[in-house]
Amino acid sequence: MKSLPYLLLLFLSLWACKDKPAPAEPAAPVIGTLAENAMVVSAREEASKIGVEILKKGGNAFDAMVATEMALAVAYPYAGNLGGGGFMVYRTQYGEIGALDYREKAPLAAERDMYLDSAGNYLSEKSKVGALAVGVPGTVAGIFAVHQKLGTLPMEELLRPVIALARNGYVVTEKQAGRFEQYASVFEKVNEEASLYTLGQKAGDTIKNEALAATLERLADKGRSEFYQGETAEKLVAFLQSKNGIITLEDLDAYEAQWREPVQFTYKGLNIISMSPPSSGGVCLAQIMKMVEPYDLSEYGHNSTKSIQLLAEAERRAYADRSYYLGDPDFVEIPLDTLISEGYAVSRMENFTFQAATPSSEVTHGNITMAEAAMAESMETTHYSIVDAFGNAIAVTTTLNGAYGSKLYAKELGFFLNNEMDDFSAKPGTPNMFGLIGGEANAIEPQKRMLSSMTPTLIEKEGAFWMSVGTPGGSTIITSVLQTILNVYEYDMSMQEAVNAPRFHHQWLPDIVMFEPDSFPQPTLDSLSQLGYTIDVNNAPVIGKVDAILRLPDGTLEGGADRRGDDTAVGY
Ligand code: DON
After folding, report:
1. C-alpha separations of 228 from 61, 144, 215, 248, 526 in Å
2. What does pTM read for this prediction?
């Protein structure tokens, strides 16, 4: 049965429109895809469909995770990957929760100052492009860890439709064609040769990736060790070393995904479960929500001056802490309980007032100058949410970091390699590609995981699963997840409306509030300027690309698939 109030709303809005001339552009749907049993929402229709196919066969959300993750690696090479890493947060049908960290690691030969020249200048390209930018990939370890602990169907069965997709091909979308056009010459330059992704495919063309099909087939036959010790490992290391990389067979052999305890906190009756370090996502989300919890956001109104101000001030303070305290928990001590506590949140907001902006220079020590916030091309991670018919729910965010990662394409294996090393703090006080300033806690060390902002999040309401949510967007991930949750909980939006709604972002440094263009009323922006906020409506064409699933009161699942991309919800 569909959710009655939502259908009623849909009917009423259609009725209200019946005598009006048809709009030139169809309006974005107010209600997302609805499903009675199970759902997958991801960046590509093919991946969502393959996930649902596994669910329909009787597989659970964890089986579907394996297939969806690999299908994204085939059809969404921009961010889907075998050469990157990610995080999964889960809640089983029995209410058990957990998190998997399959984040990349610094190679054994990595050095703290590996991106500095002899005069100490940061050579910023080196951590972003080419073999030195590559962290030891974790994705294959991640899917095998999930499968071993929580999966039910054989791996060969999960990979079969993915191998078929790689072999038979996927159809290029308009948005994808634009990206291929933009990057083809970069791939050729970085790799010093032509490859599958330098052919200038157009929208509607079909891309078959036989090399990736063969790699996946070997994984299906031989298991995890194929990637970390076998033929694939050897080919990968030979490739990286031919490009002057430092990753060795020893690095691959030493890689392990880690089960972690997720960050858990409450917000006005919700129980929020999110990713723990080495992602900053859960901690920062908790800090921001705890800082704004005492205030009546719903009364202030969605995207009102007061709401934006309050959130921006909480964001500023949380990101300042992120920079100082957060890093790989296997290497640094993090005062996690304090950071996410109510008392600490209150103390952080003591100097907040609605009368004027608190300058970031007063929120922390150090006189840090303007950072380069490269928001223009910033949707290269990917998030998917899955809920199965048994009641298991997962939220997974996976990435190569930048668009197509380091741009290095292992032609023989059929996949791109990450440039995750840029997420380390290469030089204290110097921003990374997201304008984030890192500290000592996130300095490079061999075998260390670089700090992330990825925020795969699950929410319980009244003890039951309520929402799965996450997004790409680098530093804007945390604030996009935050706004999506608040849009539903504080502002009564449907899941799809919450995803559609325009977003803004503040990250302490640079001391700027970024807004999606043409989507906030000028009087609101003017009033924020008058309060002392620096407004930027030009440099963040898109903030976040959220995929989410909401469980409605009658049990129906509503998907929220972001219109900013090709994202698609599929359910049954
Ligand atoms: O882990 C992180 O925070 C980044 N590597 C995520 C990169 C990302 O979201 C790129 N897309 N916008």
Report:
1. 25, 12, 12, 10, 55
2. 0.93
